[in-house]
Structures are given as C-alpha cells and as structure tokens.
Amino acid sequence: MRVQGVIVSHYGIAVEVLFGDGARRMVKVKRNSGHVVGDRVEVTGEVLARLPRKTELQRRDARGGIHLVAANLDVLGIVVAPSSPAGFTDRAIVAARAAGLEPFLVVNKLDLPEGEEVAGTVVPLYRELVLVFALSAATGSGLEPLREFLRNGHRGAFVGSTGVGKSSLLNALVPNLDLKVAEVSEHKYQGRHTTTVSSLHALPGGGELVDTPGFRDFGLVDITCEQLAEFFPGFEALERQGCRFHNCRHRSEPGCAVSVLAASGALNAERYRTYLELLDEVEAAEEAAQRRGWKK
C-alpha cells in the first residue's frame, strides 16, 4: 500500500516520516539519497519515493560543496546576534529570495548589552526591507510577535552562524523540545553548534520549523549577476530609478543608480561592499561554469 507523508527527521542512513494520520515511521535510505527534511514522499513497503518539491534551499560551503538545507519551505528566518559575521545577513536574504522564500530577521540576545547594540544597528537598517523581530530567546521577551507570524501556516527554518542562539530560540518556541544548547564562551559570545540531526517541528497553534545544523558560511548557489542585483536588500529602489544600462552590474558603470544611492548615503556603505564581494563571487562562479562548458 502506498502512503504519503513528510520527512521530519534525517539521520543519514534513515529518515523519519510523518503520515497524515499522525503515525511516524523510520525508513532506511542510502547515505547520499538526496532526501531532506520537508520532502513530501510516498512510501510503499520499505521503498521511499520523493514527490515534486515546491522550493529548495541550498548553500555552498567554504570549500565549494553544495548542500541542500531543506525542502518545501516558504519562509527563512535569519538569526543575528553579537557573534554574527559581516555579510551573512545579506547573503541569506539573497539566497532566500532566489529560492522563492520570504526572508525575515530575528535579532536575538537582547538580554545582553551587546545584543541591544546589534539591534540598534540592524533594526533601522532592515526594517523597511524585510520583517524584523528583536527578542531574547533566553528571557522570552519579544517572542510573541514571532509566534504570531509563524502561526499563519508558515514552514520555515532558522539560519545563522554558530552561537547566535538558534537552538535556544527553538526551545523557546516549541515547549518540551529541549534541544541541547552548547555552552557559549564569554569571548565574542560564540558557542559550539550542537544539532547533528535535521528535524521538522510543529509549533503550538500552527506553523512548522526545521532545525538544521549551523554553519558559518552561506555561499550562493546558481545565482546570476542579474538575480543578485534583483534580490540584494537595499536595491529595491532600482525599480523606480533604474540604471542607464539594463545589464548594469552596479560596480562603476556610467549612469548607475546604485552608485548614486551609495554616494548619497541612502545605501549603507558596508552593505554596498558586501554586494561587491558577492558580485565578485557570482562572477567567478559564472566564469568557472563557462570554462567547464568549454571543456566538454
């Protein structure tokens, strides 16, 4: 008999499937099967078949490897805190938009003076571009607006570098979850990531969250220079102003609207530098793909 369900946990050589009647079952898979949490599947005996995906969230690691993070999400929560590396937020927003997901920011650790300082910078910078939730997972302050947002039937994931408090945030949102939280050092407020199994959790009142292993890098996958300019946060004004040339890469071309925004201060200088770094990265990836095509 064929039964459809959703993969809610992935253990490398086996996955846990949640069926419509609430039953759960472990099914063995090959280690590199390509299945991920969030996949809709059809199970026949011990055979598992993946159904078409609506969305995929991928990332490229520092060594160039491509990893599929989760499937069939509709939102992506980008968690930032005092330990967050520069540029991670903009990378994640671009990746989310390119994957067809709605990005939102979670500024965590407001219970720390350093967290308040981060919020004072991040909230004004992004609140006109994406939804922003400033909170403390440790004390619970500011959690209710985020809960209300997720209750609207969203399936999402939290991404962020190690030490930003993703496990603490999930523990606060999902009662009795009790994810292991690593000790965070006082130096730079960084911790060791503790999640080793990807899993999907239902939230009280509605909504679902995927817990994924943390990572410090978020390299872009299969994004063109045109998509980078389209999805980069802060470039939304280009739709109204426009550049002289339709294929402008916003580096030093004449009549570039982005250059005007950067020069006037309307575009944050640090984030413009992040864009230029991402542009270099995307151009290098495109050139590498072209070279591979020529060798075939």
UniProtKB/TrEMBL annotation:
InterPro entries: G_CP_dom, P-loop_NTPase, Ribosome_biogen_GTPase_RsgA, RsgA_GTPase_dom. One of its GO terms (biological process) is ribosomal small subunit biogenesis. Its cofactor is Zn(2+). GO terms for cellular component: cytoplasm. Its EC number is 3.6.1.-. It is found in: Cytoplasm. It comes from the Bacteria. It holds the Pfam family RsgA_GTPase. Residues 71-216 form the EngC GTPase domain. Transmembrane segments: none annotated. Keywords: Cytoplasm, GTP-binding, Hydrolase, Metal-binding, Nucleotide-binding, Ribosome biogenesis, RNA-binding, rRNA-binding, Zinc. It is an enzyme of class 3 (hydrolase). Residues 62-218 form the CP-type G domain. GTP binds at N108, K109, L110, D111, G160, S161, T162, G163, V164, G165, K166, S167, S168. Zn(2+) binds at C243, C248, H250, C256. Binds 1 zinc ion per subunit. GO terms for molecular function: GTP binding; GTPase activity; metal ion binding; rRNA binding. Belongs to the TRAFAC class YlqF/YawG GTPase family. RsgA subfamily. HAMAP family: GTPase_RsgA. One of several proteins that assist in the late maturation steps of the functional core of the 30S ribosomal subunit. Helps release RbfA from mature subunits. May play a role in the assembly of ribosomal proteins into the subunit. Circularly permuted GTPase that catalyzes slow GTP hydrolysis, GTPase activity is stimulated by the 30S ribosomal subunit. Monomer. Associates with 30S ribosomal subunit, binds 16S rRNA. This is Small ribosomal subunit biogenesis GTPase RsgA. It comes from Geomonas silvestris.
